[in-house]
Amino acid sequence: MEHVTGDPNPFAERVLDLVERIPPGKVMAYGDIAEYLGEGGPRQVGRVMSTWGGGVPWWRVVRADGSPVQGHESSCLSHWRQEGTPMRGERADMRHARWHGDHR
């Protein structure tokens, strides 16, 4: 993850807060996060994660097909195995691993 100085903007804070709430063994796609928050899109969420995501469980945020963060596959797969994340090969099994939020 890229290290950046400066504080996250309000959208980034909302993204990071949601990522912190994803339970162990579950994942959300970038687009799922944007949809849950009702703002931004997958690319905006990806930018937040690449800029400020190092302090949250970033491995729980995946592409829509369940593939791990590019360049961090090995670490991501290790976290998934430790947390018991449902997998299909080297991807999260989105049918069983996807978290739909706490709908608060």
Protein architecture, described:
With 104 residues, this protein is mostly helical. A hairpin with a 2-residue loop joins strand 3 and strand 4. The model has no long low-confidence stretch (mean pLDDT 93).
Which structural traits does this protein have?
4 strands, two-stranded antiparallel sheet, mainly alpha, two-stranded parallel sheet, 44% helix
Provide a compact summary of the structure.
The chain is mostly helical.
Order of strands across the widest beta sheet? 1-2
Sheet-strand content, in percent, reads 5-15%
Number of alpha- plus pi-helical segments: 5
Q: Which of globular, elongated, flat, extended, rod-shaped describes the shape?
A: globular
Radius of gyration: 13 Å
Largest sheet: 2 strands, parallel
* Helix residue percentage: 40-55%
Number of strands: 4
Mean pLDDT: 93
Distance between the termini: 29 Å
Q: What is the N-to-C order of secondary-structure elements (H for helix, E for strand)?
A: HEHHEHEEH
Would you tell me the structural class of the helices and strands?
Answer: mainly alpha
Poorly predicted sequence stretches spanning 5 or more consecutive residues: none
Instruction: State the assembly state of the protein chains.
Output: single chain
Helix-strand layout with pairing:
Blueprint: H1 10-21, E1 28-29, H2 30-37, H3 42-52, E2 61-62, H4 73-83, E3 87-88, E4 91-92, H5 94-97
Parallel strand pairs: 1-2
Antiparallel strand pairs: 3-4
Helix pairs in contact: 1-3, 2-3
